[in-house]
Each structure stands twice: as structure tokens, then as C-alpha cells.
Design a protein that fits this description.
This protein has about 80 residues and is mainly β. It has a 3-stranded antiparallel beta sheet, with no helix packed on it.
Length: about 80
Amino acid sequence: MFDLSQIGSRYVTIEWAKPIYDGGSRLTGYNVEKRELPEGRWIKAIYGNVSDTMLKMDGMTEGRKYEFRVIAKNAIGKSR
């Protein structure tokens, strides 16, 4: 679950909580993905590692609906 902390006409800032369980290995970051609703494909919202639990994403289109997902990563792999 995450919060939309700031919304503008061309950007959105999302925040999320760290997972309760790290799988036995320290978290190394997050992948953040987005898709345009209702039938868009999942794409990376930002290339590279996101190390914080907050991300501002530019390039949004006003009036369109988006869905986001955050995937935690550690040395073992990624969450599902």
C-alpha cells in the first residue's frame, strides 16, 4: 500500500512503507512500475535503483489514470 503525497498536472509523488519481512537479507532498493488504466502494460517508472521509500515521477498526463506497483529487492531477489 502506498500514498500519493503530491499530485500535479504532470507529476505525482508516491510514498510506501518498507516491507515487514526482508526475506532474511537486507533490502537493496525498489523497482517502481506504472501502467495507464484501463489496459496499459507495466513499464518501469524510473530506470535504476530506487533506494528511498518515496519517488517523484514526472511525465504524467493530466486526466489519465495510472496504477503503480513497488517491488522490493534484496541480494536474494525481488518480491512478488
